[in-house]
Amino acid sequence: MWLTLLYSCTGGAALLYALYRWVIPAAVQYHGGLALLWHDIIVERMLDTLTQSTRPQRLLGAVQKNATRGDPRSVVKAIDEFCRHKEWAMNVGDEKGCILDSVVSELNPATVLELGTYCGYSTVRIASLLPPHAKLITLEFNPDYAKIACQVIAWAGLEDKVIRKLQRNIYKMIHGTQNLTFLCV
Q: What is the C-alpha to C-alpha distance for residues 124 and 130, in angstroms, rounded to an integer?
């Protein structure tokens, strides 16, 4: 009886491992909806339960472990590495980030409004390229994301360039913004 139980557990573990490592990743490559379901519902909830932390908290931990305090480029690189090798997260990424960098550099905006901060990746990326007296106003609806973003922005040393707002009424905020040069959504 114990031997049967041992074989059942071993076989179940091998089956779950095969599904996790090969079958499911192969399926999600060919169907975007499956990829979203797999990463955002199954894997993220499993990791949240196992680590007793959320993906944004794990991303912040990667920044604190791998980035140099006060160096925005190292913060961006740490987040890119985390998203490429550890967990998928909502960020611009290094390839599209180069395009964003060139647009920000070309426009040289005095004021930027960002709608949706998430963990602060694009906030750090944009704010690091702004001229000395420019400001980036970033709005976040989710207070948990806003808390993580504040810490990421502080780690990058960009608190003086970024005005963070936890805002549920975006129209109210945009109405009060004067001389907007660049809008990032």
A: 10
pLDDT confidence of residue 42: 78
Q: What is the pLDDT of residue 10?
A: 78
Which 8-state DSSP code applies to residue 87?
-
pLDDT tops 70 at residue 170: no
pLDDT greater than 60 at residue 63: yes
CB 138 within 8 A of CB 123: yes
Asked if 156 and 70 touch (Cβ cutoff 8 Å), the reply is: yes
Parse the chain into domains and list their residue ranges: 2-52, 57-184
Q: Which residues, at least 6 apart from 106, have a Cβ–Cβ distance to it below 8 Å?
A: none
**pLDDT > 90: what percent of the chain?**
43
The fold for domain 57-184 equals Rossmann fold (3.40.50)
Residues 106 and 176: beta-carbon distance below 8 Å: no
